[in-house]
Design brief:
Elements lengths: L1 E5 L6 H11 L5 E4 L7 H8 L4 E4 L13 E6 L2 E6 L11 H10 L3 E3 L6 E6 L2 E6 L8 E7 L5 E7 L2
Parallel strand pairs: 1-2, 2-3, 5-6, 6-8
Antiparallel strand pairs: 1-9, 4-5, 7-8, 9-10
Length: about 160
Amino acid sequence: MKILLLSDTHGNLSGMQKALEKYGKNADFVVHCGDGTRGEAKWLKKNVSGAKVICVRGNCDFSSELNEIEFFDVYSKRIMVTHGHCFGVKYGLENLSYKAEEKGADIVFFGHTHICTDETLGGIRLINPGSCGRWEATCAVIEIDERGNVLVNHVRVK
């Protein structure tokens, strides 16, 4: 299964569109970890076909009706999606890891810091695609196979 992971677009639809064109082909999931302040979640749900779209609310998504946390499963992996601000991710990933463990998640997709991250803490894999809204926009392409192997590739959107 292929997942295109986006976050922190902050209204930069062009960065998000370039990421979709370049890395979203054959994606099974397109996930946005919040701070799509100009309706990126609605745009994705309307314009992405062939992939399931999962989006959460970030700290800058003031009037959004999106949930702060979503879950989905890929093969044997339970994935938690959140923006991260509610867990203080700018100060450490421990609270995020504890919440994931409490909820039975194996992997967490999060944003907020604008920093590409792929680390394991307490047995939980924590992945942040960086920011697709900056001039050096980044995203992550994640592949999970039937055996539960996870390959993460952080890429620059040009």
